[in-house]
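Example 3.2
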Amino acid sequence: MPEPSPASPAPSASPADGLRFAFGTLTVLPAGLTRWDRPAARTGMLCAPLVGLVVGVLAAATGLALLALGAGAPLAAVASVAVPAALTRGLHLDGLADTADGLGSGRPAEDALRIMKQSDVGPFGVLTLVLVLLAQVAALAQAYGGSWARGALTAVVSAVAARVALTLAARTGVPAARPEGLGAAVAGAVPVRGAAAVALLAAGLLAGAGAALGAYDAVRAGLAVVAAAGAAELLLRRCVRRFGGVTGDVFGGVAETAATTALVVMSLG
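Structure, written as tokens:
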């Protein structure tokens, strides 16, 4: 869809437009994406945590189904990690690997961005993927081993926290490293106050969900979102300094960093 001219700005996007943009760009789920402009990107990235909720519920349901069929906690954990990867076509994991290769290359920004666009995965990317996936499976296995309900909550918290990080990364003031691609489409699209409000709302709602399991789980769920946002912010700032802005790969790396951090926090204690 061609971008509107400055003299004819695009109309504001409805919540339905935002949901279509969010699900259409962040998952493989059929969404009927019809708008690809800044207003739709703004509303869509504000809706990103809702995408995380759907992904997290599907991941938790898969893990619980395997447990009900007699599988152990490790297999349920693997399934709960595999579902988000499948629903995103592995794009977030691919972005994490490419970001690791770019950061680890030690090359100037332009060369690092070129390395990130290559189809192969370098040693930094492989090592990062292995460690991150091991951490995610280990944390979920511990959660499912403690109780089925805690495992399901952990899967949901991780998925929502990952998308909260995407909303925060798309806030005003964060530039795009390239003039094209998904990174450029959403970079700087979300007002800072709106992004902060979404993050606080998500943390509060997840803490409320954790309260069903006890006061400690309520605190832990809220802290998991806060810690995930903090870890993602550190990576985001490093990438902006290193590459001059964000790309679609950086968004993927931010999401996986947040998801892993949330899982680790949920496994503590």
